[in-house]
Structure formats: C-alpha cells, structure tokens
Amino acid sequence: MWMGRFDEALSESERARQLDPLSLIIAADYGAILLFSRQYDRAIEQFRLRSSEGSEFWPGQRHLGSIRRKEDVYASAGPNRVMAPA
Questions:
Q1: Residues 54-74 pLDDT 10s
Q2: What are the φ and ψ backbone dihedral angles of 58, each rounded to 5 degrees?
Q3: How far apart are CA 1 and CA 9, in angstroms?
Q4: In a domain, 28, yes or no
Q5: CA–CA distance from 19 to each of 22, 26, 27, 80 (Å)?
Q6: What is the CATH number of the domain that holds 29?
Q7: Are 10 and 30 in contact (CB under 8 A)?
Q8: What is d(CA 46, CA 60) in angstroms, rounded to the nearest whole number?
Q9: Quick count: other Cβ atoms within 10 Å of Cβ 23?
Q10: Which of 24, 31, 57, 71 has its CA 20 to 30 A from that of 84?
C-alpha cells in the first residue's frame, strides 16, 4: 500500500484532489491514507464531508465504519458497517 510513507502519500493524494476535486475515489483514498496513518479525526472529517454532500459511496462509508470500530464504539457504527459488494 503506502509502506509507511504517509506524508508522501498525502501529498500525492492532495495533488490528485486538486486535479479532480469531485472524484469520489480520490476523496476515499485520501481518507483511507488518513485512516491508515492513524489520523482518525481528520479521516472522520474527510468521510463526513463527503457524506454530508449526499454521497453514499461505499468505500468511504466502509472506512468510516472501520474508524468507529477502532474507537471502540462499534455500536455507533450502525449503518456504516458496510460490506463490499460481491
């Protein structure tokens, strides 16, 4: 994946977001980098931003559920416990 090079990954992802600010997959990847670099508050903010825009894009919802489980609030993960489509 990013092999511990989170700063570089965030920088490249930010560049991608500048090139295509409406891309859902780029936004989800940016949030995932934040998640895996343990920047949970920023990742939650990123995923909620897209959710508030009406996006039901499942990768973002799945990652948001993962953060909730990591925070030991599994019960509040509720509908964010999304499984990948088959």
A1: 566 667 677 777 777 766 654
A2: -65, -35
A3: 10
A4: yes
A5: 9, 10, 12, 28
A6: 1.25.40
A7: yes
A8: 9
A9: 13
A10: 71
Query: CA–CA separation, 61 vs 48, rounded Å?
Result: 9
DSSP 79: G
- The span from the CA of 15 to the CA of 48, in Å, is 21
Helix, strand, coil percentages, rounded to 5, for the chain: 70, 0, 30
What pTM was computed for the model? 0.65
DSSP secondary structure letter of residue 25: H
* Domains in the chain, number: 1
Instruction: Please say whether the beta carbons of 40 and 70 come within 8 A.
Output: yes
- Structural domain range at position 25: 6-73
Question: In terms of C-beta density within 10 A (0-12 exposed, 13-18 middle, 19 or more buried), how is residue 63 classed?
Answer: buried
In a domain, 78, yes or no: no
